[in-house]
Amino acid sequence: MQVNEVMTKEVVSLDQGDTITEAVEKLAYKKISGAPVLDTDGSLVGMLSEKDIINAMEMRFKRMEMVYPSLSMVSVSFIEKFEDKEVVEAFTEIAETNVADLMRTEPFTLDSEATINQAIDLMSRRSINRIPVMKGDKLVGIVTRKDIIRGLADSTNGLV
After folding, report:
1. Distance CA 20, CA 23 (A)
2. What is the pLDDT of residues 7-37, one digit of tens each?
3. How far from 95 is each of 1, 49, 101, CA to CA, in Å?
4. Which long-range contacts (CB under 8 A, 24 or more apart) does 20-28 make?
5. What architecture does CATH give domain 3-156?
6. Alpha-carbon span 152 to 154, nearest angstrom
7. What is the DSSP string of 106-121?
8. Which string of DSSP letters, residue by residue, matches 79-100?
9. So where are the chain's domains?
């Protein structure tokens, strides 16, 4: 079975100039957990997922603190401390950040003729949930774990 048989063809994408607020609204409204990021020419330039947003928020909870007395005689030691900051406050700090600043660049992709075995292998090895599907330089779909499971269920329909 090929990826183009199970992929989602109507891809929800983000613009690299979108704010994180705009991205979160689109992801929530479309009920998806991540999307490809396109430049002004429509070329794939990255991926943004809920995980990327949560990781950026998590960074707002941390601060570095010097350890007294230093555990080392030749260097100053620091430890991470987590702040008791509200989630909403942490989100507010990144809300106007551009998607381009948080997205993962150089996303893994598959050719539309790839097999679902190749998709499963890439998802497993790289711990990713979705892969943009390309035909040459053009984004033609996205394949998710859910798409693969649905495709497998459809292919076994009638066998059970």
Report:
1. 5
2. 999 999 999 999 999 999 999 999 999 999 9
3. 41, 15, 12
4. 20/53, 20/56, 20/91, 20/94, 20/95, 20/96, 20/97, 20/98, 20/99, 20/102, 21/95, 21/96, 22/99, 23/48, 23/53, 23/99, 24/53
5. Roll (3.10)
6. 5
7. S---EETT-BHHHHHH
8. EEEE----HHHHHHHHTTSBHH
9. 3-156
Strand 44-49 and strand 104-105: the pairing is antiparallel
Task: Quote the CA–CA distance of 67 and 34 in Å, as a whole number.
Answer: 39
Ramachandran angles phi, psi of 79, nearest 5°: -130, 155
- pTM > 0.70: yes
For 68-77, letters b (16+ CB in 10 Å) and e give eeeeeeeeee
- CA–CA distance, 61 with 86 (Å, rounded to integer): 9
